[in-house]
Amino acid sequence: MTRFGIIGGGLMGHGIAVTLARAGYHADVFDNDPAVLARLDDRVGRSLARLAVPSHEAQALADRITPVGSLPELAKNAQVLIESVSERLAVKHEVLAAVEACSAPEVPVWTNTSVLSISAIAKAMLQPRRLVGVHWWNPPYLVPLVEIAPGADSDPALVTHAHELIAALGKTTVRLHRDVPGFIGNRLQFALLREALHLIDEGVCEPDTIDTVVRSSLGLRWAAVGPMENADYIGLDLTRAILGNLAPWLSTRTTAFPTLDRLVAAGDTGRAAGRGLTGWSSGRGGEVAERLEAGIRHNLRPEGSRS
Ligand SMILES: NC(=O)c1ccc[n+]([C@@H]2O[C@H](COP(=O)([O-])OP(=O)(O)OC[C@H]3O[C@@H](n4cnc5c(N)ncnc54)[C@H](O)[C@@H]3O)[C@@H](O)[C@H]2O)c1
């Protein structure tokens, strides 16, 4: 059975390890921060608890996830390597060059980048054909979607291999025809975020009003009917007319984002700072994490059992 090696044991790396363990695989995890490795067991345990995995099963799953202290040790046993380190191109370059130096050339390398170009990441590799974009969503053990994208030099056989392995986990996979920064999901997500910030900049509403609108309308609709199907449903002639009227008013900003820039400059960066677009009293971060996972679990329940 495929043994995975995950580089980066943070939020995503540990969550991907949990997903793989639940599917019966073994995952070794390396992180260059010893404190992250030391906390891995605990973090895995908490994620399994949130998934309501009974404790006797949780131990067996946790036993499939092994923290390892060096990249060569990780690469020695891995049949697939998953890069999930910090989202900085220089860091990805450094890690992938090191990965190539200590792993067999036939071992595929998947990058979990959110928005960097796969081809740009592969620039650090002597064999860019090994790299495939495999983008999970947080929390990876709950969110069904995994997006798969080739870089300009990816071996198509390795893209297919990634697609098949991920589909065999029971995930919903989509395969992009070509490499674009942000895959599909983050491009859609950040197009909406840009417009939301534009409405705030223009004095139309407060940030929490945006959340009320999305959670009480679009968020509910999209899980049932996607925007393409909806466009057909209401009619493409009407869709065209609405878009033609609205498009001139939508944000096309590419650099300055006034509200965001002001908050970041003031150090009001959100949860960790205690202030951001909304207020963050102590304990709210944990409550949001719980609500996120509970909400996704609720939406994934068979239709008849939802109340
Ligand atoms: N957070 C999300 O919702 C999300 C979703 C999908 C994809 N991603 C992507 O996944 C990747 C990881 O994100 P995250 O949210 O888990 O971040 P994170 O900060 O929680 O984890 C990143 C880990 O990488 C480790 N690291 C940094 N440099 C390293 C190196 N040279 N060698 C080994 N380990 C190193 C850090 O110590 C840290 O533990 C990023 O590319 C991110 O864009 C994040």
Overview of the structural elements:
The chain is an alpha/beta fold and 307 residues long. The chain folds into two domains: 3-175, NAD(P)-binding Rossmann-like Domain (Rossmann fold), CATH 3.40.50.720; 185-305, N-(1-d-carboxylethyl)-l-norvaline Dehydrogenase, domain 2, CATH 1.10.1040. The chain is 50% helix and 12% strand. It is built from 13 helices and eight strands. The protein has helices at residues 11-22, 34-50, 55-62, 71-77, 89-102, 118-122, 156-168, 185-201, 207-222, 227-234, 236-246, 258-265, 284-300, and strands spanning 3-7, 26-30, 65-68, 80-83, 109-111, 131-136, 145-150, 172-175. It has an eight-stranded mixed β-sheet, with helices on both faces. Helix 1 crosses helix 2 and helix 2 (34-50) packs antiparallel against helix 3. The longest helix has 17 residues, at 34-50. The protein is globular. The chain starts with a strand and ends in a 7-residue tail after the last helix. The mean pLDDT is 96. Bound molecules: nicotinamide-adenine-dinucleotide. The site of nicotinamide-adenine-dinucleotide has 25 residues, from helix 1, helix 5 and strand 6.
* Average pLDDT number: 96
**Could you tell me the strand content as a percent range?**
5-15%
CATH topology of the largest domain, what is it called? Rossmann fold
Spatial arrangement of strands, main beta sheet: 3-2-1-4-5-6-7-8
Task: Give the CATH level 1 class of the largest domain.
Answer: Alpha Beta
Helical content stands at 40-55%
Describe the structure concisely.
By secondary structure, this protein is α/β, with parallel strands linked by helices.
